[in-house]
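ARCHIVE RECORD
Type: protein–small molecule complex
Small molecule: zinc ion
Source of inputs: curated submission
Record status: active
Notes field left blank by submitter.
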Amino acid sequence: MAGPVEVEKLLSGFPGRADRGFFGWSNVYLLKGERLALFDTGFYTDRAELLIELEKRSIAPGDIDMVILSHLHYDHCINLALIPGAEVLLSPRELEYARGECREKGDIYIVDYPDSLLAGRTLRLAEEGTLVMDGVVLMETPGHTPGCISAVAETPDGPVVLAGDAIKNGWEVMNNTPTMAFVGIDMARKSMKRILDTGGIIIPGHDRAFVYRNGGLEYLEELGVVLEVREDPSGPPKKYRIP
Ligand SMILES: [Zn+2]
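STRUCTURE (tokenized, with ligand):
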């Protein structure tokens, strides 16, 4: 595999929730090589920011050649609609799961109308070893869902693994406990181990980038999330920074 490819964060994943529910903030990354690819697309609440982040880089949504969907949970795939014309890389197993089997598993997070989301798209089979572009290859990492796909990019900093929800956060790694393993925890653990064994920089689905070495996990960035709350009707919003 040649390269290198640049891997750039557009939206930060967040390993938290509120008492009224899950934020749905997943990592969204840009892969810049011989082609331009997006790894996941975020949730509805990310829409404006996703477009702003692209615009900051002078990238029009139509400039993106392809979108890799790690899986079909709403918080990773729903903004595909904002990226017109891009080829979509998706596991066929995931699509099959999303068309009905997910309900039997009690997986309420799969996007409701997968075929509508994908209507008119050129779909490209995403499976073990698929070469996305020079320097980016896919891994099958099932467990969270049956068709979870991770991407390994050869970058100037070494291999970077975009794990999707095969690893959601650092806690799952340190406790060897992948949560929400709809296919079973043994398979989810196996996929997590495969990702960690690459020895690369890991971008989990909902947390900071990290490296995992000798049983220890080192984050490479801060969360740096600022929550703005309009507590005072006459003043500016109060800001809470989560480091
Ligand atoms: Zn998920």
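CURATOR ANNOTATION: Residues 71, 73, 109, 144, 165 surround zinc ion (CB under 6 Å).
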